[in-house]
Amino acid sequence: NAGVTQTPKFRILKIGQSMTLQCTQDMNHNYMYWYRQDPGMGLKLIYYSVGAGITDKGEVPNGYNVSRSTTEDFPLRLELAAPSQTSVYFCASSETGMGRPNTIYFGEGSWLTVV
Amino acid sequence: DAKTTQPPSMDCAEGRAANLPCNHSTISGNEYVYWYRQIHSQGPQYIIHGLKNNETNEMASLIITEDRKSSTLILPHATLRDTAVYYCTIITQGGSEKLVFGKGMKLTVNP
């Protein structure tokens, strides 16, 4: 069981370039999330999705876009990369609430540097 | 969702119990206490969660006060591999599903 898989693990971008961080999960979870973590800081929620076709903004959505065309995939798009987007990005997923506690499973992270 | 407060750091001797506190004085009746940890830039790892009763699993124990305004995560026999940042967070059952993390608490287990 692979869980949550993120690609790429490492990437260097030039200012103004665009890229997509891929995230896929094989646990049939409805809920998926993207977080960023700056050095020495906690996690900040960028976007989340409660199901295919539904996305919503988190704490720090500016500069990013997401889509959720399938249950398994939740890509994060950076359109015009800026140095402030240098960070570690974590994708996560969880099973549907439906009155149950919401245990979230994280991927291993994608290290992005914008120069 | 209720906010949580944790001390920024704590030290513990290897083999001793590590007691990690968390305050969540504004917690509501349908909100769960969740604990995660993050070992040196790896993805956060789920540890345990609870509503009002104390909970125990193979990793840790969670003690929640009767008024639910605070909780303590207990690692019964801390090892060097338990050195990590520990996050206490609150999530509403059946409500907003986004999970928000604070800065967490750095636990250092010393030999």
Backbone shape of chain A: globular
Helix content estimate of chain B: under 10%
**What share of the residues of chain A does DSSP label as strand, in percent?**
over 45%
Strand order of the largest sheet of chain B: 1-9-8-3-4
The SSE order of chain B reads: EEEEEEEEE
The end-to-end distance of chain B, rounded to whole angstroms, is 38 Å
How many beta strands in the DSSP annotation of chain B?
Answer: 9
Q: Which protein chains make the most extensive interface, counting residues with beta carbons within 8 Å of the other chain's beta carbons?
A: A-B, 31 and 24 residues
Task: Explain what this protein looks like in three dimensions.
- The complex is a heterodimer of chains A (115) and B (111).
- With 115 residues, chain A is mainly beta.
- Chain A has no helices and eleven strands.
- In chain A, strands 2, 4, 5, 6, 9, 10 and 11 form a seven-stranded mixed β-sheet that branches.
- Chain A starts with a strand and ends with a strand.
- The mean pLDDT of chain A is 91.
- Chain B has 111 residues and is an all-beta fold.
- Chain B contains no helices and nine strands.
- In chain B, the strands form two sheets. A five-stranded mixed β-sheet of chain B has the order 1-9-8-3-4, with no helix packed on it. In chain B, strands 2-7-6-5 form a four-stranded antiparallel β-sheet, with no helix packed on it.
- The mean pLDDT of chain B is 90.
- Chain A binds chain B through residues 4, 31, 33, 35, 41-45, 48, 50, 56, 58-59, 88, 90, 92, 94, 97-109, and chain B through 32, 34, 36, 41-46, 49, 51, 87, 91, 93-95, 97-104.
